[in-house]
Specification:
alpha/beta, FAD/NAD(P)-binding domain, 6-stranded mixed beta sheet, binds flavin-adenine dinucleotide
């Protein structure tokens, strides 16, 4: 009997795990169970809509999904439609590849005001993620603060300031394009607690900020050090030098005709969202950075803005039956092993770090561990899953169904764009002639 393995989540880590299992064992069956009708996790819902080439890896994942040994069950939420324990009873091994979809809270006074959004919600909204379709952020402001010094912060700033023509070949969700392109946004502040040397932007993404049609990057040259102090590898030093050189280029740039600005504000920590119930600004404290660590100087200043997006990291919701690690916000694990027959990969294992390809190693590790730990199958696998889902009248989406949704999105694409995304589950299900899924209590 082939081993029956369930993978929860059809993002990169889930697909890399499935591919590794198929490579390492002729004899296994892998079922991928995904909350949304659409696969690919953050490749669809996180990666910036104007970075289409990054999304190309999904074509490799589609091949994995179409392997005869793989089953795809989209629109099935583990913890809502079926419990983790029920899956474990039906599969020899279960791999949690559910990512880290929640924003880490900003946790400063005023951060619950209207106009403060987490990046998971905000990025999900402009990428057409159904959970955030109705976020309706109020963009009627001339200034936005984006808190964080990684690529997510740069992505958000760029999407807010690019012109409709610059976004024409993207898959920015239609509702978001309408709102963003009408917004009177002129200034976006990218705020980092530490300095330019410690910032986590990759150079390609940073450089893009200098090549926008109507927007100019603004950097205070006084914030750029002349040398990079501290111990680090040559590789790390070269990466930081590159970013510094790019930022110096921005600082030296003469004023042009661009009427939008993205300001890089380093060594500054937000301590309060101002304005009472509605954002009117951010109070900041100036930081001093020593050996990569930031210390408050006591000096404060304010940035007036009507919207705040915090891009300061992600964590996982509690999944009943999987032990949570409170400090890191992921599933507690020992290099991916959680307990007998239960494994974790990707952001749910490591937290939000690395690029898409970083998840490959997790997939390989989990596949090897599973094949080492379990040699005999005694479970029903997909047959048991389908019978439970049918009994509960859960509407699941097969990979062939997804290909129909995909084709419908591509057929509806505006000129130059790769697709016009559906952002409501009911519209996705309508394409394949399925009724809207019922929200079912797993016990029901
Ligand atoms: C805004 C943003 C932009 C990024 N841009 C880039 C980039 O340009 N280049 C790059 O290389 N990397 C980028 N990354 C990083 C990359 O997306 C991640 O490394 C990768 O997606 C993590 O994969 P994962 O499978 O662990 O999680 P995810 O991609 O989050 O996939 C998890 C999947 O699990 C599903 N799921 C969650 N809970 C359940 C449940 N209870 N039941 C069933 N299914 C569930 C989710 O719907 C999702 O499909 C970006 C990340 C973000 C947040």
């Amino acid at each position: 009997m082939p081993l029956q393995i369930a993978v929860i989540g059809a993002g990169p880590s889930g697909f890399y795990t499935a591919a590794s299992l198929l490579r390492e064992s002729e004899e296994c069956r892998v079922d991928i169970i995904e909350a949304l009708p659409t696969p690919y996790g953050l490749i669809r819902g996180g990666v910036a809509p104007d970075h289409q080439s990054t999304k190309g890896v999904s074509r490799v994942f589609a091949k994995t999904a179409q392997d005869r040994r793989v089953g795809y069950y989209g629109n099935v939420v583990v913890g809502r439609d079926i419990t983790l324990d029920e899956l474990r009873a039906r599969y020899d091994a279960v791999v949690i590849a559910a990512g880290a979809p929640l924003d880490r809270p900003l946790g400063i006074p005023g951060s619950d005001a209207a106009g403060v959004y987490g990046s998971a919600a905000f990025v999900g909204w402009y990428n057409g993620h159904p959970d955030f379709r109705d976020l309706n952020p109020d963009l009627n402001t001339s200034a936005v603060a984006v808190i964080g010094n990684g690529n997510v912060a740069v992505d958000i700033a760029r999407v807010l300031v690019k012109t409709p023509a610059e976004m024409a070949d993207s898959d920015l969700a239609e509702h978001a394009a309408a709102a963003i392109h009408q917004a009177p946004i002129k200034d976006v502040y990218i705020i980092g607690r530490r300095g330019p040397v410690e910032a986590k932007f990759t150079n390609k993404e940073l450089k893009e900020m200098g090549a926008l049609k109507e927007c100019v990057p603004v950097v205070d040259p006084a914030q750029l050090p002349t040398v990079i102090d501290g111990e680090m590898s040559d590789h790390e030093r070269a990466l930081r030098e590159k970013n510094l050189a790019t930022l110096r280029g921005f600082a030296d740039r003469p004023a042009g005709n661009e009427h939008k600005r993205v300001h890089f504000v380093f060594c500054s920590k937000p301590v309060e969202v101002l304005g009472g119930g509605q954002v009117k600004g951010l109070r900041m404290v100036r930081m001093r950075v020593e050996a990569g660590r930031a210390f408050e100087t006591g000096e404060t200043f304010e940035i007036p803005c009507g919207m705040v997006v915090s891009a300061i990291g992600y964590c996982m919701p509690q999944l009943a039956g999987a032990p949570g690690d409170e400090t890191s916000g992921v599933v507690a694990n020992d290099d991916g092993r959680v307990s007998d027959g239960l494994y974790v990969v990707g952001w749910a294992k490591r937290g939000p770090s690395g690029v898409i390809g970083t998840n490959k190693k997790d997939g390989r590790t989990a596949a090897r561990q599973i094949l080492q730990d379990i040699s005999e199958s005694g479970r029903t696998g997909g047959q048991g899953l389908r019978s439970l889902l049918s009994k509960r009248k859960v509407v699941w989406v097969s990979f062939e169904h997804w290909l129909q949704i995909d084709a419908a999105e591509e057929a509806a694409a505006p000129p130059g764009a790769p697709r016009r995304k559906f952002s409501r589950i009911k519209d996705m299900l309508a394409v394949i002639g399925k009724p809207t899924a019922k929200l079912l209590n797993p016990a029901g």
